[in-house]
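Consider the following input, taken from an annotated entry for (S)-coclaurine N-methyltransferase (Solanum pinnatisectum).
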Amino acid sequence: MMELYCERSQLKDGHTVLDVGCGWGSLSLYIAQKYSACKVTGICNSVTQKAHIEEQCRELQLRNLEIIVADISIFEMEGSYDRILSIEMFEHMKNYGDLLKKISRWMKDVNDDDWITRYFFSGGTMPSVNLLLYFQDDVSVVDHWLVSGKHYAQTSGDWLKRMDENKSSIKPIMESTYGKDSAVKWTVYWRTFFLSVAELFGYNNGEEWMVAHFLFKKK
Ligand SMILES: C[S@@+](CC[C@H](N)C(=O)[O-])C[C@H]1O[C@@H](n2cnc3c(N)ncnc32)[C@H](O)[C@@H]1O
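Applying the prediction step yields:
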């Protein structure tokens, strides 16, 4: 999947890359490792995520990846990147217009600049996709791809299976994260989340709720 993001965003070795909402760093680490001449910057809103990624960088001896901890909705910086990628972060956002304006300011001012995002949406009425397409004041969509919901359904089903198979090692993590009194409740919440995603995205053979990739160009 990581290579697919790189292909679809036409990323090349030597590019400066911004990964907005980098999470635990799966994409940033992949790019920094595979494209060693790229200079990668990841933005996340968690010091734990930053610490984890930096630990990985030390183990892998990577010197081309930097992590910024910030709330993207208020974060400002002077920056200019060849490629900006954002995987599964827009679900957490509310003001698409402002965020796209900000991101467009960070895109280099040349014609082939673009970025890609993955976004979940309902294939029936496609409300989320319509929303993203609506905000094209600062960027315009140049390409998009649909991915069957069956893949995410299977992933979520596997997460559920692994959680159930590892109940005893997960219990202390739930207790330290949510407190002893709430650990069972949160275990149920997580199981419900995995079950709902598996059912929703698997519905109608994966053609009702899907995943979309967009390629945008700076206007
Ligand atoms: C669903 S995860 C996706 C992580 C990663 N892009 C991936 O594909 O594995 C969403 C991530 O977006 C980031 N995020 C969410 N809200 C954010 C905010 N307000 N500011 C910065 N990052 C945020 C966090 O790093 C969070 O882990």
